[in-house]
């Protein structure tokens, strides 16, 4: 039986990863400081004898050592994950993401962990350049958040190479699904829009709405993490669907799913937001067997169903 440490275990992606690992027979150790994660996300996991939870900060080496135990693999999902908030508090974004990652990877090396999967972000590519974005596309971080994610990739890969650990850095594009936080100033666009439209309120689009994103359902992201640990191929990999949806189209699909017809409000674009984003996922397909199974429309339907049940 394999043992995994999942950092950010109470978060959106981390909690789904915990559940899937447990379903596959893993022993799972979760670490989260609960600064943004929701303990309710671990309600099912806590019922399993194969799950242990440690509350604490990934920047604290003692806490990380305690959480690691005898883990074979680490899925490092903990992060401050917001472009706008990283402009308001760049120090916090830097220490949480950079110091946290260095602490986790160094501790994993000392504990003999075999593989580390690091959550990175498509924001490292920035705007401009060619589309779709492949992993060898030049990076151009345009926010403190993006810069911190590029650092986390590099420090993880460097320590992994030095210590003989397989490190896979997964560049997530726009992940969505159940449990994603709809509240707060910096909530991700899909849960925020669903929540507003459920209340018959107008969603706000920053810009003309023709900016596009490569949305990928959370279940596919979880599968990518587990495949990366299984295949043990070090490197950087795009995790996305490989297709785009404009924000205007997103609102239309959610409206249709909810049987609504509510027009959005347009405001000025936000600094640091890129215009278009779409991934080339051929490397992930070839190296770790990643193949997204969930269509955008199906993902929206499943996400809406979850929000309606809350």
UniProtKB/TrEMBL annotation:
Pfam families: Epimerase
Residues of the NAD-dependent epimerase/dehydratase domain: 4-240
Gene3D superfamilies per UniProt: NAD(P)-binding Rossmann-like Domain, UDP-galactose 4-epimerase, domain 1
Protein name (record): GDP-mannose 4,6-dehydratase
Organism from which the protein derives: Halorubrum persicum
Lineage of source species: Archaea, Methanobacteriati, Methanobacteriota, Stenosarchaea group, Halobacteria
